[in-house]
Amino acid sequence: MSENRLGELEEVLMLIVGILEEKAYALNITEEYEAQADRKVAIGAVHTTLNRLEKKGFLTSEMGGATAERGGRRKRIYSITASGHRALANVRDFRLTLWKQFPAFAEGKLKFVLA
Amino acid sequence: MSENRLGELEEVLMLIVGILEEKAYALNITEEYEAQADRKVAIGAVHTTLNRLEKKGFLTSEMGGATAERGGRRKRIYSITASGHRALANVRDFRLTLWKQFPAFAEGKLKFVLA
DNA sequence: ATTATTTGTTCTACAATGTTGTATAAAATG
DNA sequence: CATTTTATACAACATTGTAGAACAAATAAT
């Protein structure tokens, strides 16, 4: 019964949380997303999605301390749970399996090679 | 303005269409999905999604001939358009870029290696 | 110290995508 | 031509994605 589905934005935000680590709070995640995806996203969309991922148990969060920056309000820092990590690994493996079977993609047309 | 987004199911069904080639019709796509994803999906869900992908210009379809099987009604065969292929390649490259930056995933923990 | 400005989160409403169930259609068999 | 099998199409509902406004807390300016 491992309800394991991840939407497209959900999956990408999880990965960005994993990349940003202790700097993974909504505003920063939004900026990172826009930089990497070359695409705009509303901050509200990110908050909503992070909340839902937390409710599903794929992410946890805790309030960090306030920084000494101008307006440096306390941030809610997100991190990936064990269950979230498993879900991510599953979707990744599934997609890799499919890509391997897709003739147009499998035959040495990959620009990136992992591992 | 390249409206390039692909939902999770949309993306996977596109890949399966690419894998099945001339056998890519809804019922067969459904069975292939269930076999590969180890997960159930309603045939109606597949039809709806294929229709939407066609409307977006990522897939095309044409009716194939009736086969000589018992009950062999004519099938609607789907194939990927140039635009669909580009969209797929984009999401794949984007995700690979993210995975490479994700410490827990990037450090030799991959079971599958492409190319 | 009170007002403005900046960084940040929370809440509400709506659009797009995912899912289910049911109805319908066409071909082969008896 | 009724029954069975392989299929698609359609309608209703659930989940996920998106946008924007409201709210909160911290520093800076006056």
Secondary-structure topology with pairs:
The structure is a homodimer of 115-residue chains.
Chain A lengths: L7 H13 L5 H12 L5 H13 L3 E5 L12 E5 L1 H20 L1 H4 L9
Antiparallel strand pairs in A: 1-2
Helix pairs in contact in A: 1-3, 2-3
The structure holds a DNA duplex (30 and 30 nucleotides).
Explain what you see.
The structure is a homodimer of 115-residue chains. The first copy, chain A, is mostly helical. Chain A has a single domain, classed as Winged helix-like DNA-binding domain superfamily/Winged helix DNA-binding domain (Arc Repressor Mutant, subunit A). The first copy, chain A, contains five helices and two strands. Chain A has a two-stranded antiparallel sheet. In chain A, α1 crosses α3 and α2 crosses α3. The radius of gyration of chain A is 16 Å and the shape is globular. The two termini of chain A are 31 Å apart. The relative contact order of chain A is 0.15. The interface between A and B is large, with 40 and 40 residues. The structure holds a DNA duplex (30 and 30 nucleotides).
Primary descriptors:
homodimer; 115 residues; mainly alpha; Arc Repressor Mutant, subunit A; two-stranded antiparallel ribbon; 5 helices; 9% strand; disordered C terminus; DNA-binding
* Unreliable residue runs of chain A: 110-115
Largest sheet of chain A: 2 strands, antiparallel
Integer count of domains of chain A: 1
- As a whole number of angstroms, the C-alpha radius of gyration of chain A is 16 Å
- Give me the side-by-side strand order of the main sheet of chain A: 1-2
Oligomeric category: homodimer
CATH architecture of chain A: Orthogonal Bundle
Count up the helices of chain A.
Answer: 5
Tally of DSSP β-strands of chain A? 2
Sheet/helix structural class of chain A:
mainly alpha
Biggest interchain interface, per-side counts = A-B, 40 and 40 residues
Average pLDDT, all residues of chain A: 89
CATH class of chain A: Mainly Alpha
N-to-C series of helices and strands of chain A: HHHEEHH
Tell me the span between the first and last alpha carbons of chain A: 31 Å
CATH topology title of chain A: Arc Repressor Mutant, subunit A
Helical residue percent of chain A? 40-55%
Task: Give the CATH superfamily of chain A.
Answer: Winged helix-like DNA-binding domain superfamily/Winged helix DNA-binding domain
Indicate the overall shape of chain A.
globular
Percent of residues in β-strands of chain A: 5-15%
